[in-house]
Specification:
Layout: E1 2-3, H1 12-17, E2 36-37, H2 40-47, E3 50-52, E4 60-63, H3 67-78, H4 81-194, E5 208-214, H5 215-221, E6 225-226, E7 230-231, E8 238-248, E9 253-263, E10 279-283, E11 293-297, E12 317-324, H6 325-330, H7 332-335, E13 340-347, H8 367-380
Antiparallel strand pairs: 1-2, 3-4, 5-13, 6-8, 7-8, 8-9, 9-12, 10-11, 10-13
InterPro entries: MATH/TRAF_dom, TRAF-like, TRAF1-6_MATH_dom
Protein name: MATH domain-containing protein
Pfam families: TRAF-mep_MATH (PF21355)
Length: about 375
Amino acid sequence: MQLICCGLRICELCSESKLKLQRQCPFCTAPGIPEVKYDRGFRRELESLSLKCPKCNDQWFGLFTDLPVIYEQMNQHCLSDQHQNCLIQFIKTLIPQTSQKHSNLALETLLDEQYRRMLTNYIEKIDSIVQEIDPILGKCSRLSSEGQQFEAGIQEVRAQCVKFKESFDKNEKLAENINQILANMNKLLHEIKSMSMVDLKLISSDNTYKFKVNILSIIDNEQAVQSEPVHTSQSGYKLALSCSIYLDQQNHARYVSISFIILCGEFDTILSWPFVYPVTLAILDLTKAKRNIEYSIPWHSRTAPLHQPLRNQNTVIHIERFCSVDTLIKNRNSYLQDDFIFIQMHIDFMEPGANVTFDKDRPMITEDSIQRSIVTNIATK
């Protein structure tokens, strides 16, 4: 049957049982109960079909329109030798296939057993591998955690490196500033050196200068200690004192040695030479008794250490046996304060040595004679 609305082919039973219940075409959705008609084109196609034996496939029986006559011919054909031979050949082809299937089944059973054993072995091996994998996975997890910690540490180190670089850059700039400051200071120092000294260390108003010395340190180190330069005035003489320890190998004794030094000053060219003022050196007694250990340096106009310095300083006037170390130690309450002694230098500007009258026949006082005189005087004391 064929639908009038859309031309679709359907069977006659469906058209009679189902289409009558529809309100529209189920295929093209045309409204109303679908109308059908006989499909003459389809019938012509059926009538033109030819029929053949499904087994022989080469015997033609006729057209579909002659089907009642063909039934009788088909029955005769099925009983013919040709058709029977085709059936026998068909059965022969089926038998090897069936036996092959049975043999294949046995082989498959054997192979299944072998495969089962192999799979069992593989499963056992896999189980052992899994057991080994579990701790490995634990280690991997731990390593991953440690890796994350290391990564965090690396990030922290990187941050610190960035801070260090920033600090280094700041320090580099600071170093440049310091170098600039040092250059300015050197320039200023050079300017100061080129200027006249206005803030000098001067002797006190009573014409004395006191030199504080750690005598025990000198005894232990066996090294001389020199005072800072001191000036008699802003444009006066430049002097210094020195203290050391003298070892008398012959008498196995130690002595405090004090030296008087005339240094080269800026105003030496306008000063009177030789230095004609009496100088008295003393180790001060710190108690009320005031029993100072004193010595006056003898003066003579021809003594080289008292003339104008030609170099940085004159030859030292050295009193090597000024006082016995044992005397100071025994009387430490009188002369020592916290291991320090106080050496005083007094210059008498009221009695210059130039006004003293000397005997022309008196031998010239040299540095050696001064030293011998000092040694003799100290030994007498």
